[in-house]
Amino acid sequence: MKEALILVLTHRFTRFALVMGIFYQFLFITVWMIGFGSVPAQMSKLKVAIINQDTSMSAQVQNDLKKHLPFQVQTAHSLPRAIEQLQQRKIVMIIEIPNGFFKDVRNLKTQAHLDYYINESNPMLASMTAQQSASQITEDFNQELTKRALQGILQGLHVPGNRAQTIVQQSMNRVVPDVHILYPVSNMGYIMSPMMFGMAGYVSAMILQLNLNNAIRDLGDKLAKWRRFQTRMIISVAASFVYAYIASTYLAAWGTPIRQGFLQLWVFQTTAEFAYMFLTQIPALLFGMYGLLFNIGMLIAQAIYSGASIPRMILPRLVNILGYVQPMPYAVEGVQNIVLGGPSVTRDGVALLVYAIVCLLLCFLISELKDRRQE
Fold first, then answer.
1. Is the predicted pLDDT of residue 5 greater than 50, yes or no?
2. What Rg do the C-alpha atoms of the chain give, in angstroms?
3. Cα-based distances in Å from 314 to 64, 289, 310
4. What is the overall mean pLDDT for the chain?
5. Tens digits of per-residue pLDDT, 90-136?
6. Which residues of 64-95 are buried (b: 16+ CB within 10 A; e: fewer)?
7. If pLDDT is split at 50, 70 and 90, which confidence band does 355 have?
8. 255: exposed, middle or buried (Cβ count in 10 Å: 0-12, 13-18, 19+)
9. Rounded to whole angstroms, what are the CA distances from 187 to 39, 86, 191, 257?
10. What whole-number distance in Å separates Cα of residue 146 and Cα of residue 79?
């Protein structure tokens, strides 16, 4: 038994697996800690727009509202323009102070409505933070206005105790939130579907390329050099269509409301698969089975860079820049728009197509150089 253990443990595949097991512990923890570790301190980078339609409202009250916001606050002058920014995920929430708001605040018989606009097709953390902030802002506003109402009324009137208590009760809950959901999402699984699409597509491409490389290598001289490259390309392209169709169909079977249509999701995901196929093929061509190390490393990194779970605007600057040279951020954003709701995916689709073409040319160059070296 001892000899068998020594033989197994000293085998190159076993040593490789043990080393990689340790390596990925460090890689996972490092990458995820960099991403999630920046969240608490960087949440203030999220942007909120305030639109004040009430010209009678004092600047002091508007400043008090800004103090309650743990975000970067910008003043907007047009609701349609602000909604466009919300659709493009440049801001996470719009707070609109409607005309007559301050008048309603001072009228004890009415309730003043503060309007919130939130885009739920944002990354989950941004959407949840915006909704929690809407509730907290309303509560803080109520307390502040109640205090102001009491100071103004009780100082000017000599009110009996019972009457004063009644006034206090009437002064409570002066602001009622009206939350306008831009793209309502009823299931958290739908929110996470863009990341699942990206991860599943990348892993399937990675596994296929590794096995294609092993199969072509074992066939050896049975395939001419051009047949090797052509066969790999045909299988990769065909598999991209099939993988994307199966994934889109299965997602629809779960009842996911695909807002921009099944066909657009299938075509877009196929384009993303092209990029994944040709990207993961490069390490497989260069390093064989050891290319799995590089592909898994890129997979882990892109899980953070993609913006599906953490808004990219709050990630460290270097990490955010690295996201622009990887395909998954474009794929995740496109699927977010198609499935959850958002603007056109043309820009993301073009970026993925260009990425796929560049990687395809690199695959061709690497294959040619390897064939010449073997000759």
1. no
2. 28
3. 25, 36, 8
4. 77
5. 888 888 888 888 777 777 677 778 889 988 887 767 777 787 778 77
6. ebeeebebebeebeeeeebbebbbebebbbbb
7. very high
8. exposed
9. 23, 21, 7, 10
10. 28
Among candidates 23, 43, 25, which has minimal Cα distance to 33? Answer: 25
Going along the chain from its start, the domains and CATH numbers come out as 46-181 (3.40.1710.10), 187-374 (no CATH)
The encoded tokens of residue 1 equal 């038994």
Q: Rounded to a whole number, what is the distance in angstroms from the first to the last CA of the chain? A: 45
Half-sphere exposure at residue 255, Cβ-oriented, CA atoms within 13 angstroms: 5
d(CA 302, CA 287): 21
Higher confidence at residue 289 or residue 57? 289
Q: What is the pLDDT of residue 157?
A: 64
Q: Which of 250, 252, 270, 273 is nearest to 262 (CA)?
A: 252
3-class secondary structure for 111-164?
Answer: CEEEEEEECCCCCHHHHHHHHHHHHHHHHHHHHHHHHHHHHHHHHHCCCCHHHH
271 falls in which pLDDT band (50, 70, 90)? very high
**47, 74 in Cβ contact below 8 A?**
yes
Distance, in Å, from the CA atom of 186 to the CA atom of 193, rounded to the nearest integer, reads 13
* Angle, CA 180 vertex, CA 175 and CA 183 arms, to 5°: 160
**In the chain, which residue ranges form alpha helices assigned H by DSSP?**
2-10, 12-37, 39-42, 59-67, 79-87, 101-106, 124-156, 161-171, 188-219, 225-253, 262-287, 291-305, 317-323, 327-335, 346-374
- pLDDT tens profile 124-173: 677 777 877 787 777 777 776 666 666 556 556 666 656 666 665 666 56
